UniProtKB/TrEMBL annotation, chain A:
<dbReference type="InterPro" id="IPR005226">
    <property type="entry name" value="UPF0014_fam"/>
</dbReference>
<feature type="transmembrane region" description="Helical">
    <location>
        <begin position="189"/>
        <end position="211"/>
    </location>
</feature>
<feature type="transmembrane region" description="Helical">
    <location>
        <begin position="94"/>
        <end position="114"/>
    </location>
</feature>
<protein>
    <submittedName>
        <fullName>ABC transporter permease</fullName>
    </submittedName>
</protein>
<feature type="transmembrane region" description="Helical">
    <location>
        <begin position="6"/>
        <end position="28"/>
    </location>
</feature>
<feature type="transmembrane region" description="Helical">
    <location>
        <begin position="40"/>
        <end position="58"/>
    </location>
</feature>
<keyword id="KW-0472">Membrane</keyword>
<dbReference type="GO" id="GO:0005886">
    <property type="term" value="C:plasma membrane"/>
</dbReference>
<keyword id="KW-1133">Transmembrane helix</keyword>
UniProtKB/TrEMBL annotation, chain B:
<protein>
    <submittedName>
        <fullName>ATP-binding cassette domain-containing protein</fullName>
    </submittedName>
</protein>
<keyword id="KW-1278">Translocase</keyword>
<keyword id="KW-0547">Nucleotide-binding</keyword>
<dbReference type="InterPro" id="IPR003593">
    <property type="entry name" value="AAA+_ATPase"/>
</dbReference>
<dbReference type="GO" id="GO:0042626">
    <property type="term" value="F:ATPase-coupled transmembrane transporter activity"/>
</dbReference>
<dbReference type="InterPro" id="IPR027417">
    <property type="entry name" value="P-loop_NTPase"/>
</dbReference>
<feature type="domain" description="ABC transporter">
    <location>
        <begin position="4"/>
        <end position="207"/>
    </location>
</feature>
<dbReference type="GO" id="GO:0005524">
    <property type="term" value="F:ATP binding"/>
</dbReference>
<dbReference type="Pfam" id="PF00005">
    <property type="entry name" value="ABC_tran"/>
</dbReference>
Length: 263, 210
């Protein structure tokens, strides 16, 4: 079986679809047109670059290069998390980066070694796309978790201070916030897992089926990747929140409001 | 013996001076009423003692030790702080009690009889433990907060308008509970007259505004 290459004409038809959101935002006066064009343009540029770059990386297939590329992905991911959670990078980024690197590399090695049973666990064809799926999917949860934690601790500061004044250690006083933020962050991933296959056919499965794999192989991969995503997401969010608990409070246990990016 | 000593404390917030060169010395067993218009730094003083505010000049000593970020955690284990703002929890009252007394610092703080005694002193029915905290009346929430402070076994109390929402009988009762114990050191911010009769010292903040 073979997959069909999309022709240039096909690509043009794809861009043609963008006229619909552009027309809608024009008539509703949403001032979105420039962001739509900018986002689409960025997507094309980034993917073009990645396409060329990945062709090179896949051809070379050098373990070190693959590891380095995943590190770039992790760096961009942790940066994006902080930016979208409206947090300043300075104090939080190094630790978050370290934690995310440990969990994501560990999950990748486990996945490739024990689940797929690859001879070369650093094989570019697996290492990079699977790394991307796991990271990309845990990104949103991470943002939700950190945002929720910061806004809760500020909105309900009184409750937190009450616990401190009742003699709680910082960790004891923060555990209820941690529990809640982690729960909120995991909800979308859990919902995804529960509705997968029926409500939506995920990208990985679609990709494999389009590439000619049998649906049965596709679902095996899908189940394995979904579990990997869920586990990594939970650990990533937990570690992200621990970074906030560690770095986000001063010696008196008071939340450092200066970490929040002022809009 | 001097227990709490505040020297030249100045606090400003957003460029506005809230406390300026404030001094106070508290001896063990003192019962101090702090009164004065709202918004002139009475609550800020308590927040500073508990380490909940920054940017202050001057120094605070507890038991002759200067309060800083290292020992504030021990101070919070010695000093009970109760506020008029009682938005402290969601869920059942008993869960709140369990949570507070699951903290390492409070593990052996109280027994069941003590809980029952304090609840009956505050006219709280045992049934209240099964109710949702957020659904309680203002006065009930206030009494739950006082109950937690009393159960914690501490002997220094900072009370910020804790009788404002209570009826006259309860006001009287609460004042007696705190001011009649000779071992306790109590600082109470209040507009209620009941405190004044039993206070060993009254500080009127209105006279201290610059």
């Amino acid at each position: 079986m073979e997959s069909y290459d999309i022709s240039l004409e096909g690509m043009l038809f794809s861009f043609l679809l963008l006229l619909i959101p552009i027309i809608i935002s024009y008539y509703l006066g949403m001032k979105l047109i420039s962001s739509i064009i900018e986002s689409a343009f960025r997507m094309v540029l980034q993917l073009l670059f990645v396409g060329v770059f990945l062709t090179f990386v896949f051809d070379q297939n050098i373990a070190l290069l693959n590891i380095a590329w995943v590190l770039v992905m992790i760096f961009v991911a942790s940066h994006t998390v902080l930016k979208n959670a409206e947090l300043k990078a300075g104090k939080l980024l190094p630790m978050l980066l370290l934690f995310m690197a440990v969990t994501n590399y560990a999950m990748l090695l486990y996945f490739n070694r024990f689940i797929i049973d690859l001879n070369n666990v650093f094989d570019a064809r697996y290492f990079i796309p699977i790394g991307g799926m796991v990271l990309g999917n845990s990104l949103r949860a991470n943002i939700i978790g950190m945002e929720n934690f910061c806004s809760d601790i500020q909105r309900n500061e009184n409750r937190y201070l009450f616990r401190l004044s009742m003699g709680a250690e910082k960790t004891e006083a923060l555990v209820p916030y941690l529990r809640k933020s982690l729960g909120v962050a995991l909800k979308p991933t859990l919902a995804n897992m529960a509705t997968i296959g029926i409500v939506f056919i995920p990208g990985m499965m679609t990709g494999q089926i389009l590439a000619g794999a049998s649906p049965l192989v596709a679902i095996e991969y899908q189940i394995a990747i979904m579990i990997a995503i869920f586990v990594t997401t939970m650990v990533n969010v937990l570690l992200g929140l621990l970074v906030l608990m560690q770095r986000g409070f001063d010696g008196y246990g008071i939340f450092r409001k200066e970490l929040i990016r002022s809009s | 013996m001097e227990l709490l000593d505040i020297q030249n404390l100045s606090v400003s917030f957003d460029g506005k001076t809230i406390l300026s060169d404030f001094n106070l010395s508290v001896v063990k067993g003192d019962k101090i009423l702090i009164k004065g218009k709202s918004g002139i730094g009475k609550s800020t003083l308590f927040r500073m003692i508990m380490g909940f505010g920054k940017h202050h000049l001057g120094e605070i000593f507890l038991d002759k030790v200067k309060v800083d970020s290292d020992n504030i955690w021990d101070i919070r284990k010695k000093v009970a702080y109760v506020l008029q703002d009682t938005d402290i929890a969601e869920g059942k009252v008993s869960d709140l009690v369990d949570e507070v007394f699951s903290f390492k610092a409070n593990k052996d703080a109280y027994g069941k009889e003590q809980l029952e005694r304090i609840m009956s002193d505050l006219f709280l029915s045992p049934r209240i433990l099964n109710k949702e905290y957020m659904k309680l009346s203002g006065g009930e929430k206030q009494r739950i907060c006082l109950m937690l402070a009393l159960l914690s076994g501490k002997d220094i109390f900072l009370l910020d308008e804790v009788t404002a929402e209570l009826d006259v009988t309860l006001k009287q009762k609460v004042v007696e509970m705190f001011f009649d114990n000779p071992q306790w050191t109590v600082l109470s911010i209040s507009h209620d007259r009941e405190w004044e009769d039993k206070a060993t010292k009254v500080i009127d903040f209105s006279g201290k505004v610059n």
